[in-house]
Amino acid sequence: MQRHLEAQIETFPIAGGFTISRGTKTQAAVITCTISEAGRSGRGECVPYARYGETLEGVLADIQAIAPAISEGLTRADLQSAMKPGAARNAVDCALWDLEAKRAGTTVAAMLSLSPQPLITAYTLSLGEPEAMAAKAAENAARPLLKIKVGTGNDIARIRAVTAAAPNSAIILDANEGWPEDVLAEHMAVSAECGIKLIEQPLPAGRDAALASIQRLVPVCADESVHTGGDLAALADRYDAINIKLDKTGGLTEALAMKQAAEKLGFRIMVGCMVGSSLAMAPALLVAQGADFVDLDGPLLLATDRDPALTYEGSTVFPPQSALWG
Question: Do 54 and 48 touch, CB atoms closer than 8 A?
Fold first, then answer.
């Protein structure tokens, strides 16, 4: 029996809005891909990202364009060369994993010989004025790991304010490529003084060579600078960690291979996400097993999630049930 692919755009409201150095969004716009065969269906979700030249319409068209090949039996292995890395391939790849597990009467975790455990995820605070960010940090000071959006020419007040407001939380800074090179050393020194655990993508991708020549007082994590395993070797002199996101790698298949390659090169592993629903987080939770940092809080930022959804208890996220994915 032939497989049938469908894809649609869905939106989920964000609770209170979400601000980074590039702007503010009030809803998460995602694309859901469903592949059906013999009465069983597998699903995947992706979040197109304008920073990488993606649009909802363009990604939807890319997914729909692969439908004839999927119908004719395109395998997940062949998909890796049939589609380029990015959001579209992610949705299709994860849908194929889900379908494979359901056809076999098992789980994706079992297929990977994993026994997934609950994980502590970071909780992200939007970029704002120092006083407002400190107030949000204080509200969430019981969470063990906070991720703070920064990325301006002067974030020193923000760094000091949030660390003072949540003294018992481990804190990651995410600059989203927003720090000018001339403030890098000072921001790094203040971050070290305040006990920051990780700084994510301080300089623009492609213009981050300065990271190789300064003393990295706090470990630095590549995000926009790294998409797939092929990017890793060139980053070894300037980053200490990498952020693996399925929407960048183009799915679970490449994410797993990339994680293995990164570990061999000595990188610390962070597994992150775009702002999406539980369906997008579910496969990433398998990659995140054993990771140094987990940032899969997308559903915690939404006003409404899918049903069924992942279970979150505070900052602890539990592995998905098969009714959701996998």
Answer: yes
